[in-house]
């Protein structure tokens, strides 16, 4: 039997920490929340107020955003295991006509350098995954919007018998709905989306499913004064794994809060729950943000709450953005 030595741990460590064994062939680039605002609030994004990074969670949110915007997010991933795994996310959107918005994003995940060896020969490789999206959203009423996004993703798979990294592509569709309603000076938000409905990845004789998931959430914003606001929310994410019994044990939950001062300075915190048998990524998250003349900077940091998940220690995200008003 061929012995495989993976110098920069990937096939086992990354995918086992991201999900269950049945989840292990699904692409990492489609399962990582990309931006600092959402990751600072326990991966919440389907029902929070609209922002430039809505494409990943709920594309329909753009219909309640500003005129347009762009952002770039970066996270060094699992640095306790490897020094060169990184995630990068670019997103942008703009209004076309009245109540119509188009949006797009590019996600990129670099595994870093990997050495595959059978004890006689060795192969150096630097695999990566990526995805590109195009979305459309429309505000139907002052309170409701719908949206759809189309995606092409490229994933990787290790053929351990042939000492090779295989690449394959798949097409996917997202659909979402978003609702917001003033309640006096306050506001309530609700959102639902289903993401990554599409084809399978075909790696030679092996297939892998897209990480299809249903997201639900609700968020309430208290505007105590014109300067001070506090948002509290809860969201759930139910994945659907092809060929496996789908149960609520696979679901993840985020409980998050965001405090804002004059819509200029923000502080965030949250708790992310993930069943220990299906990923065990439970963690506390904290984050901060700032806005000035359309420019924004956000950062988040994770504190794992499971002793078996130390690979997530020191995980942080940073996002730079600009909003056109």
Can you offer a commentary on this structure?
With 325 residues, this protein is mostly beta strands. 5% of the residues lie in helices and 54% in strands. The chain contains three helices and 18 strands. It has helices at 13-18, 36-40, 54-57, and strands at residues 68-76, 86-95, 100-110, 114-117, 122-125, 128-139, 144-159, 164-183, 186-198, 201-203, 206-208, 213-223, 228-239, 252-261, 265-274, 283-292, 295-304, 316-324. The strands form three sheets. The protein has a 14-stranded antiparallel barrel. A two-stranded antiparallel sheet has the order 4-5. Strands 10-11 form a two-stranded antiparallel sheet. It is globular, with a radius of gyration of 20 Å. Residues 1-24 have low confidence and may be disordered.
